[in-house]
Amino acid sequence: MNKKLEAVLSKEPHRGLQYGITVIILLILLFSSTPALGGAHMTSKGFEIGRNILTGIFTPDTSLLFGLGDSGVMYLILQTIAIAFLGTLVGAIIAVPLSFISATNIVPKPVVVVTRFIIMAIRTVPSLVYGLMFIRVTGPGPFAGVMTLAIVSIGMISKLFIETIEDLDEGILESLDAFGSTLFQKIRYGVLPQLGPDFISILVYRFDMNLREATILGLVGAGGIGAPMIFALSAYHWHQVGAILIGLFVLVFVVEILSDKLRHKILRG
What we know:
There is one protein chain. Helix 9 packs antiparallel against helix 10 (183-218). The protein is mainly α and 269 residues long. The protein has one domain (64-268): MetI-like fold (Orthogonal Bundle), CATH 1.10.3720.10. The N and C termini lie far apart (52 Å). 79% of the residues lie in helices and 0% in strands. The protein has helices at 2-10, 16-33, 44-58, 62-65, 73-100, 109-124, 127-138, 142-166, 170-178, 183-218, 226-234, 238-268.
């Protein structure tokens, strides 16, 4: 009897039906998505533009790429980094109190429902829409980019902060209560050591995302390296486009490596 039971348990489960249904669903989704590609008609002019862009990348405008003035790629990269950093910082400052009053283990449920609805509403609007709104309010420029990234960052940072706060080890706080610790001591020795590494890792990740967002927002006039790129594209200055794309590639590559190493060091020591 035991041998028969072991033989039954050692058999692999029959998942042919499950796999078949999965394949059918994927095929249905694939065929239903093909009409979206119906409007893609490549013309000779399109191929020529693509060839010109590749030519511009391999033969960039060196005066723009290595220029040190306020129109050079280096200055535009620094401006993009500043926009992303300030946007992340302002968003984090607003997100921290929102996160604490949205955690179910800290505040009553009615308060959580209201604050989480506000966070969800913030996350609903795309960054480009916020960018266009702030450009109308503050005018085009880096300040519009900073405010846009700050608002966009609130939604994501708050969501991840809330998850981190709700995963707090309450046993540590109970132990500090048993020792008669004050509220400040509980925050200093019980809350911050648990939340600090995760919070910093989340902010580094969001800063990495904001660098890309800042580039895109520049296309609508919110400062950064995106604005000169759209002007160069509109004027068919492919060598300038190549110089800007090379600068963007180097920026993203360096920041990706540094952010990964920093997050790894923070989380694993």
